Amino acid sequence: MEVMPPLRLAGSTLFEGHALSVLQSLPSESVRCVVTSPPYWGLRDYGIEGQIGLEPTLPQFLNRLTRIFSEVKRVLTVDGTLWLNIGDSYTSGNRGYRATDKKNPARAMGTRPPTPDGLKPKDLIGVPWRLAFALQDDGWFLRSDVVWNKPNAMPESVKDRPIRSHEYLFMLTKSERYYYDHDAVKEPADGGVGKRSRRSVWNVNTKAFSGAHFATFPPELIRPCVLASSEPGDFVLDPFFGSGTVGLVSQQENRQYVGIELNPDYVQMAASRLQGLRSNVLRLAVYG
User: In this structure, are residues 149 and 204 in contact, taking their beta carbons and an 8 Å threshold?
Assistant: First the structure.
């Protein structure tokens, strides 16, 4: 994998390329906050060489992400924070086919992961916690497990377990002491009178982005992360940029963004979306 020459961040930038390669060329301690959602394991084939998520085994997937987030930790400031969303899945009994979701194409999952060693058909794999513990073992401070509750979650057809309507958003830090703006993310108190400290269950509706055929980050899931873990003018990084929602929220909150995306179609989608807001700070750098 080609490593790019050293870079200097001078403003909001969108890179097309492999997350690891681009990260290796970013300056150390250059971003204050990271908000990201990597591709989930064994759920979708994006048709891009080098994509993450189709590793033959779960350990390979976890090891690859741990390596990438090791570089993320290097580019974080000493008081920086990583907010990591990752979804879960069930074992398939080694069936390789998954029916498409006609009601919600953005949620459609075209592949099935192989059953990991030690698990049984129909087991919940526990990918989010396995990744969180792997990052903890790699030196990250695991500070919070936020439950993203989806009030408008699409129904599932299963009848032998509760319908899943949540995902995890992990808060991890580079150091024991880190920047956290407690007041910026207070939420309405019970009864709607006054404010209280933010709790660890966030009720945020899913929200489709026109033009995207894949699930996208809701802006209101990202906003508290950006407000709590950065200040105006800071760089906010998303190494799996997708349609660019982290960049959108960063701009709205007067932060600068660094986006990395492998899929050229998504790069173009994000670039078009962000140029309409503040084209003077958007620089698109393409690397093979």
Answer: yes
Per mean pLDDT, which range of 68-82, 242-256, 270-284 is the poorest? 270-284
Q: Is residue 127 a contact partner of residue 89, using CB atoms and an 8 Å limit?
A: yes
Per-residue pLDDT tens over the stretch 263-274:
888 888 898 888
CB 1 within 8 A of CB 20: yes
Residue 70, classified by CB atoms within 10 Å of its CB into exposed (0-12), middle (13-18) or buried (19+), is: middle
Q: At what angle do helices 127-137 and 58-75 cross, to 10 degrees?
A: 50
Using the structure block, give the residue that is written with the tokens 């995207």. Answer: 212
**Average model confidence (pLDDT) across the chain:** 85
Which stretch of DSSP H or E encloses residue 23? helix 19-24
Query: What is d(CA 192, CA 244) in angstroms, rounded to the nearest whole number?
Result: 33
Specify whether the CB–CB gap between 123 and 178 falls below 8 A: no
CATH 3.40.50.150 assigned to domain 13-39+61-90+121-283? The reply is yes
Quote the pTM value. 0.88
pLDDT of residue 97: 47
Beta strands of the chain (E only): which ranges?
A: 13-16, 31-36, 76-86, 141-149, 166-173, 187-188, 195-196, 201-203, 235-238, 256-261, 283-286
How far apart (Å, rounded) are the C-alpha atoms in residues 106 and 20?
Answer: 26
Tokens representing residue 284 in the block: 């698109």
